[in-house]
Specification:
Strand content: 15-25%
Oligomer: single chain
Largest sheet: 6 strands, parallel
Structural class: alpha/beta
CATH topology of the domain at 1-31 and 76-117 and 160-232: Rossmann fold
CATH architecture of the domain at 1-31 and 76-117 and 160-232: 3-Layer(aba) Sandwich
CATH superfamily of the domain at 1-31 and 76-117 and 160-232: TPP-binding domain
Shape: elongated
């Protein structure tokens, strides 16, 4: 039995799979990843600064100009998003924890979704705290109602993740009977530490273009996740 066949069997038999997804999942939809050559950080001297709390507070226009480049309204969910969403409907206890902030899991109607780093498509005014339409934010970062600064609800560098989000992700992993790490180098902390909370008898599957660094035994499928999910 090939590795791919083993993984398909595990996924079929699983009752509580958890998908830990990253930027590689959305690359086929036309959204560049962050760190690879040609990604959104390419040729930027201090990319982390542009997505930091400091930049947001001290150089708002520079922050706003960069963040607008992260929006790709033309992008649509690809085969991987759609099949994962389908699995969350077929298996009521299936969950998705994503690093992605691109909204494609939501567009695919994924159930039991945890946006670990937030979403570009959830915006709010930092002055009056009202929710704002993303279309309005892309026109101006000033809230028409009160003049406050609008920002997307994403976790910036120098900011902490909300405790309830971390707890929800840990709970999802700790209850899972199968862990699938998809489209991520799995290097960003604390997302990469979630695997430490899995049950010792829960298999780990990695579907990615490159291997990840982990001491845990796992099955590895190299390549574009769409190739695998087209067979699910």
């Amino acid at each position: 039995m090939s590795v791919e066949e083993q993984v398909l069997k595990l996924l079929t038999e699983s009752k509580r799979p958890v998908f830990l997804t990253g930027a590689g999942l959305s690359v086929p939809s036309g959204i560049p990843d962050y760190r690879s050559l040609g990604g959104v950080y390419h040729d930027l001297e201090l990319p982390e600064y542009l997505l930091s709390r400091s930049c947001f507070e001290q150089e708002q226009e520079k922050f706003y100009t960069f963040v607008k480049k992260l929006y790709h309204p033309e992008a649509k969910p690809n085969e991987s998003h759609l099949k994962i969403a389908k699995l969350t409907k077929e298996k009521e206890s299936a969950k998705v924890v994503t690093q992605n902030i691109d909204h494609l899991h939501e567009e695919a109607d994924t159930k039991n979704l945890i946006n670990f780093h937030g979403s570009l498509y959830h915006c709010y005014c930092t002055k009056c705290n009202k929710t704002c339409l993303v279309d309005d934010y892309l026109v101006s970062n000033y809230h028409e109602d009160c003049g406050g600064i609008i920002r997307p609800d994403i976790v910036l560098y120098e900011e902490s993740l909300p405790n309830n989000r971390i707890e929800a992700a840990i709970k999802a992993v700790s209850e899972a009977d199968l862990i699938l790490i998809v489209g991520t180098s799995f290097k960003v902390y604390p997302f990469s530490q979630l695997i430490e909370y899995r049950q010792s008898n829960s298999p780990i599957v990695v579907i990615n273009k490159e291997e990840i660094e982990t001491s845990d035994n796992h099955l590895f499928i190299k390549g574009d996740a769409q190739n695998f999910f087209s067979k699910v």
